[in-house]
Specification:
4-stranded antiparallel β-sheet, alpha+beta, 6-stranded mixed β-sheet, globular, disordered C terminus
Length: 308
């Protein structure tokens, strides 16, 4: 087999240098827990337990896509692209309802541990959750036998990646002018004992999944259609009793409602900008017509009284 001369042939098995650094040595759970919370009960980044990180959103960032959105939640960064409806590939029978094809990918540099570019089981699970969250919001009956492609790419993962991807996908669908029943917002919470951590970071997610008690440790994610007041998707990881799960769902319901003004403001601003552009185009088209009429009027011969 010919060798690849462009590839650096390193050893098959190597040891990362980080294991020899004391700062990177694995810590006990109790030590990680004490570092995650301050003495006054706030979190490591200064937030309260039920406080969200700051959002930054922008739509229309991918010029080659029909619609796109970029969302930052703290250090979590997700970009979503939506493309025009197309025929469902390898489909022999007529499908009355259109389909959503959702692809969820982590960039290789999205986390501390570099990820393989090949799709793994976690990404397939995230793509399934993304599809389930978006399906109830799209008017699929208007696209029979057609498929709408949604591609979500996580540029940096610092917790709540799936919730950010769902919110960004709803924005991208609205930016692509896809008919929808309602917008989609999502939020994530971590459960650690009797604590509910809204919008956990990657470090807090690891703490919640490890747990230090037999009960009440894990993550809960909710995607909601706020106007219809319906939950389109709910995912729960870990071991959580029913009472704590109910309290977490009520808190996440409130957080999903807090995102609605942000999404509405972006979509309304896009519509206003588009209407303003149409007005400018119509004014530019009407000006040449008026100039032609003035030119034609000035070209008419003017007869004098003597000629009559």
């Amino acid at each position: 087999m010919p060798q690849d001369t462009k590839r650096i042939n390193g050893p098959e098995v190597s040891t990362p240098h980080r294991i020899y650094c004391k700062a990177s040595a694995p810590k006990a759970f109790e030590e990680r827990l004490s570092e995650a919370f301050e003495k006054d009960g706030t979190r490591k980044d200064g937030r309260r337990l039920l406080e969200n990180r700051k959002y930054y959103t922008k739509i229309g960032v991918v010029s080659t896509a029909k619609g796109s959105a970029y969302v930052e939640l703290g250090n979590t960064k997700v970009i979503v692209s939506v493309f025009d409806p197309r025929e469902i590939p390898k489909q022999n029978k007529f499908n009355q309802l259109g389909e959503l094809y959702c692809d969820f990918k982590y960039s290789p540099f999205a986390s501390v541990v570099r990820k393989s570019p090949q799709t793994d089981a976690r990404e397939r699970s995230m793509a399934t959750a993304l599809t389930s969250a978006l399906n109830p919001s799209v008017c699929r009956h208007l696209f029979p036998n057609l498929q709408i492609d949604v591609f979500a790419n996580v540029l940096e993962d610092d917790g709540s990646a799936l919730a950010v991807a769902i919110t960004a996908s709803g924005l991208a669908l609205g930016d692509a002018c896809i008919p929808m029943f309602d917008i989609v917002t999502a939020a994530t919470a971590g459960i650690l004992g009797n604590r509910i951590l809204v919008d956990p970071t990657a470090e807090e997610e690891a703490l919640c999944m490890d747990g230090y008690t037999e009960n009440n440790h894990g993550l809960v994610m909710i995607a909601k259609l706020p106007t219809l007041d319906q939950v389109s998707e709910i995912r729960q990881y870990g071991n959580v009793d029913v009472e704590m799960l109910w309290q977490t769902c009520k808190q996440l319901n409130t957080n999903c409602g807090d995102l609605v003004p942000i999404v509405q403001h972006l979509l309304v601003s896009k519509v206003k900008t588009h209407l303003r552009e149409l007005e400018i185009e119509s004014d530019d088209e009407s000006e040449p017509v008026e100039d032609k009429e003035d030119t034609a009027g000035s070209a008419l011969p003017v007869s004098s009284g003597a000629d009559k």
